[in-house]
Write a structure and sequence with these properties.
The protein is mainly beta and about 375 residues long. It is built from 5 helices and 21 strands. The chain starts with 8 loop residues before the first helix and ends with a strand.
């Protein structure tokens, strides 16, 4: 999940109840001793996976001075990664921030981040063990990488959806998957829209006084001297999915734009696009979803681009996840939703699969279909 997955640390240390995978345990921050918090999203086949450690005390996150992480795969130790330095975490901001502010930012980091470089495979038993503050705190989590589905097919076209008082053009997907037989399965849908822009411009030459240089052509005409330049710029990845028309992703309650805007009868959106195989066990299912077409991303670097062309790649990912992660993401769907009211609606408990501490370690295996759209000239 991107990976970029939100860690939701504050949810974990602030909720009234915490649910383990088997039991709900009361959480009283006033009487709670400091606990090590472990969060990770581990993807099978990924080159690098990340693990985060925090130290929680009551409602607050304390500074974690020292910690050690161990990764075991199928009962054997695979690696003991070093914590990523603050400079690696925020190095991209150096030069953009005032020096004093940048140094204060580096010193303010309270957590530890680790990169796992061991390749994880479907079926692997994974155990993470962490100790902190010279062995004072200990936390561990053990999970098994799920198996991916074997069949995934994607059809796509452009289609209109009603929005506000008119119709808006979106990209529609019909995604057909085959359920893994003879077992209870849980899934998550993820769609990446990646765009890159190939740009050409002229860099005009200047003399030592900063004045533009003129040159004469063979036909006697004059023009400013220049050198052709080109570059490729990546637009930010987009992964929004509109799933309101799909029966499976709305848990049997498909709707329309009016339903989403109804303030009297709000619904909890399936933000993480999770589902199970209750309605199609040992069979096939077809999901119907949409993504925006997105506004063109025109990079500005002080140049006049006389040519801009766009390449777009769409990656449809069907992730096999565990039941615990399905429950965890379902809880986050509620907590992240603006319509969730903890007074009027049923209380939400977050699953926790970390022993001796708090947090959640998720695992997934993916099947994917990559669609390369034809290159288009924008300018």
């Amino acid at each position: 999940m991107k990976t970029k997955m939100k860690l939701h640390l504050l949810y974990i240390v602030a909720i009234v109840l915490l649910a383990s995978c088997e039991n709900e345990i009361p959480y009283n921050p006033d009487n709670q001793q400091p606990l090590l918090i472990m969060n990770a999203q581990l993807d099978a086949g990924k080159d690098v996976n990340e693990v985060y450690l925090h130290l929680g005390e009551g409602y607050s996150i304390e500074h974690l001075n020292e910690a050690t992480l161990f990764l075991y795969i199928n009962g054997k130790i695979a690696e003991t990664p070093k914590a990523v330095s603050p400079e690696e975490i925020y190095g991209h901001l150096e030069g953009e921030l005032d020096k004093d502010i940048y140094e204060s930012l580096l010193k303010s980091i309270r957590f530890k981040k680790y990169r796992l470089t061991s390749t994880l495979h479907p079926g692997d038993n994974i155990r993470l063990e962490a100790t902190a503050e010279n062995g004072k705190y200990h936390a561990s989590a053990e999970v098994t990488m799920p198996q991916p589905i074997e069949s995934l097919h994607v059809d796509t076209c452009l289609a209109y959806l009603r929005e506000y008082s008119g119709q808006t053009l979106y990209r529609q997907y019909k995604i057909t998957l085959q359920d893994r037989p003879n077992e209870k399965n849980y899934y998550r849908l993820d769609i990446w829209n990646d765009r890159s822009y190939y740009c050409k411009w002229k860099e005009y030459l200047e003399d030592e006084n900063g004045s533009l240089i003129k040159v004469e052509d063979e036909d006697g005409s004059w023009h400013w001297a220049s050198i052709p330049r080109d570059t490729t710029i990546l637009a930010p990845r987009q992964n929004e999915i509109i799933n309101r028309e799909d029966v499976i992703l709305t848990d049997g309650h498909p709707g329309n734009y009016d339903d989403e805007e109804n303030e009297l009868f709000p619904t909890i959106n399936n933000k993480y696009n999770i589902f199970n195989d209750n309605t199609f066990r040992d069979s096939y299912a077809t999901l119907k979803v949409y993504t925006p077409l997105y506004q063109e991303y025109y990079p500005v670097e002080g140049h006049y681009y006389y040519h801009i062309s766009r390449k777009q790649t769409i990656t449809v990912r069907l992730l096999s996840i565990t039941e615990a992660e399905y429950r965890y993401l379902k809880a986050l769907n509620c907590l992240d939703d603006g319509d969730y009211d903890n007074i009027l609606m049923e209380p939400v408990s977050l699953p926790c699969n970390v022993i001796g501490g708090l947090g959640f370690v998720g695992v997934c295996s993916e099947s994917r279909v990559v669609i390369d759209l034809p290159e288009t000239v924008c300018h």
